[in-house]
Amino acid sequence: MKRMAVAAVAVLAGALATTVSPAAVAAEGPSADLLAAMQRDLGLDARQAAERLHQESAAAVLQRVAEGFAGESYGGAWFDASIGKLVVGVTDAAKADRLRKLGAEPRTVAHKASDLDAAKAKLDAAQAPAEVTGWFVDTKANAVTITVKRGQTQAARTLVEKAGAVAKVVETDEAPRLFKDTRGGDAYYINNAGRCSVGFAVEGGFVSAGHCGSPGDTVTGVDRTAMGEFEKSSFPGNDYSFVRTNSSWTSTAKVNHYGGADVIVSGHTESAVGASICRSGSTTGWHCGEVQAKSQTVNYQEGSVSGLTRTNVCAEPGDSGGSWVSGTQAQGVTSGGSGDCTSGGTTYYQPVNEILQTYGLTLTTG
């Protein structure tokens, strides 16, 4: 049995290496504009940006199998740019060698990922006070982080009791809001009034943020011609929607790079925590940063939304619904956040895979 297990690890490691070879990644064609944006926002040179994309591609594949190898001791995974590897947390140190043979960097942690998810689920079912701005599974800290307005830590006391030993409280100056008042660029208009950004084209239309419109709301395109209407929408709780377009509009795999060549979406493989990510929006254009956490719950004034991904990318009102990509892989649509693109900020996106699965949609790829 031991010999078979070692052989299985070797086969998988070989498959991973083949799947994410630099030549294969290069064939997908990360554009010069994409690399330039990563250099600008992540402080990298051209070689470092290209190398990071290769490393992140390997990590994206590896994280899909790491959980299976870790088994019940799985404590979460994230990409560590300082070592260029996927770090996998495990509560059982005996699992480390197996994970290391796969190319991951094992780290012994106190809490299982399943326990963190269960604790967060308890918070999702709770009534949160206004002083609490949100909570998320903080993979790197191996904890459920509850964010509160500065000086208001006592407001989280009840939530800490519900989450138990896995919880930690962090003060923040953030005041999350929705990015609904869109403008300029690849925008679309709702009922000839509000505007939002297109997320990704899918068969029959496109996906965007749920707070942008409700089923039946009419949509016109950036040229103000009839485009279609909201067929499905979910907000709060979730923040996603599907707009069915009319025959005048053709779905493409393009994402507006704002000033550079369009990014051509080739798939929707989910990136790891710690991976680089870029956002396209009709107000502030193209900006990049890193994935900080997944499955974040955000308490907007209009209601709570769960299952969001937290990033350190900036955004501003008008970017709602816009595209998030990692390399050429679709990641999600803009929900909301805090700050701006002058001073920086935190922005959350709704993962695209959940939208596709929930609504039974097919992403348009090139």
Automatic annotation (TrEMBL):
Annotated family: Belongs to the peptidase S1 family.
Q: Which UniProt keywords apply?
A: Disulfide bond, Hydrolase, Protease, Serine protease, Signal, Zymogen
**Which residue range or ranges hold the Peptidase S1A alpha-lytic prodomain domain?**
113-165
Q: Which cysteines are joined by disulfide bonds?
A: C196-C212, C278-C288, C314-C341
Q: Kindly state a single biological-process term from the GO annotations of this entry.
A: proteolysis
- GO molecular function terms listed in the Swiss-Prot or TrEMBL record: serine-type endopeptidase activity
What the entry lists under InterPro entries is as follows: Pept_S1_alpha_lytic (IPR004236), Pept_S1A_streptogrisin (IPR001316), Peptidase_S1_PA (IPR009003), Peptidase_S1_PA_chymotrypsin (IPR043504), Streptogrisin_prodomain (IPR035070)
Provide the protein name: Streptogrisin C
